[in-house]
């Protein structure tokens, strides 16, 4: 719907990649709907993935012993986080929907995207104990993980060698997104795009565009262990 704000956090080194095409389809389709779309292209930005002392500008809360979670949280309160973190937080703050677009690496997100999570979602901004999960600070936001795999769909089933794809989603969807209160939409998974025909890849892109047309009408998934493990 017009007026909705979307942030696409995108991690792929090659603009001509299939992930790049998925990202472009999302930008095009959502813009057509009148949404305002922002892309954080992490590799192009040369985003720093490491959570270090450099993320805190000026004095430390405790100069005796460095505790990143505490220091970043305190720096957030006094507006003393590094400029790149503040810029990303502003994008997150404004977004109604967060789309994470990436290739699955080692059953997880690429390091540069995990680093974005580590540095941007600081205490006080994204979570505050006990304001987590259903009481989380981001309970007005939606998130969707859109990713590609190396293996085929059959590989990611309960009886198969890799196990159910939902097991892999637990740390990312539940441990990060739901923890911050975000409502999670069903993931969008493109299985093994490099091993299918050009025609099938085109069909995958069309399917993604189709889904985006009615995305705002979707109900979030049931954010409980049952969804992942039953």
Number of strands: 6
Class in CATH? Alpha Beta
pLDDT below 50 for ≥5 consecutive residues: which ranges? Answer: none
CA gyration radius, whole angstroms: 18 Å
Mean pLDDT: 97
Give me the number of helical elements.
Answer: 7
Calculate the terminal CA-CA distance, rounded to whole Å.
34 Å
* Beta-strand percentage range: 5-15%
Enzyme class: oxidoreductase
Subunit structure: Homodimer.
InterPro entries: Flavodoxin_fold (IPR003680), Flavoprotein-like_sf (IPR029039), NAD(P)H_dehydrogenase_qn (IPR051545)
Subcellular location: Cytoplasm
Give short descriptive properties of this protein.
Rossmann fold; six-stranded parallel β-sheet; 230 residues; 6 strands; 35% helix; alpha/beta; single chain; 7 helices
Fold and architecture overview:
With 230 residues, this protein is of the alpha/beta class. It has one domain (5-229): 3-Layer(aba) Sandwich (Rossmann fold), CATH 3.40.50.360. It has seven helices and six strands, in the order E-H-E-H-H-E-H-E-H-E-E-H-H. It has helices at 18-32, 68-77, 83-94, 111-120, 165-177, 198-213, 225-229; strands at 5-10, 36-41, 97-103, 142-148, 183-184, 188-190. Strands 1, 2, 3, 4, 5 and 6 form a six-stranded parallel sheet that branches. Helix 1 (18-32) packs parallel to helix 6 (198-213). The longest helix has 16 residues, at 198-213. The two termini are 34 Å apart.
């Amino acid at each position: 719907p017009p007026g909705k704000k979307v942030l696409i956090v995108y991690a792929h080194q090659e603009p001509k990649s299939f992930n790049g095409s998925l990202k472009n389809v999302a930008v095009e389709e959502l813009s057509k709907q009148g949404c305002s779309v922002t892309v954080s292209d992490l590799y192009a930005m040369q985003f720093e993935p490491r959570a270090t002392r450099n993320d805190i500008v000026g004095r430390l809360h405790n100069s005796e012993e460095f505790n990143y979670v505490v220091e970043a949280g305190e720096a957030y309160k006094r507006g003393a986080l590094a400029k790149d973190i503040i810029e990303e937080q502003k994008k997150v703050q404004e977004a109604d929907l967060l789309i994470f677009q990436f290739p699955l690496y080692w059953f997880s997100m690429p390091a540069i995207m995990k680093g974005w999570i580590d540095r941007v979602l600081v205490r006080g901004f994204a979570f505050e104990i006990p304001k987590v999960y259903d009481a989380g600070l981001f309970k007005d936001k939606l998130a969707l993980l859109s990713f590609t795999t190396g293996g085929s769909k059959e590989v990611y089933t309960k009886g198969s060698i890799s196990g159910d794809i939902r097991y892999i989603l637990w740390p990312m969807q539940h441990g990060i997104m739901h923890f911050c209160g975000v409502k999670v939409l069903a993931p969008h998974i493109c299985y093994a795009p490099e091993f299918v025909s050009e025609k099938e890849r085109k069909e995958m892109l069309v399917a993604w565009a189709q889904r985006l047309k009615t995305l705002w009408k979707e109900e979030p998934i049931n954010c409980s262990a049952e969804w992942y493990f039953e």
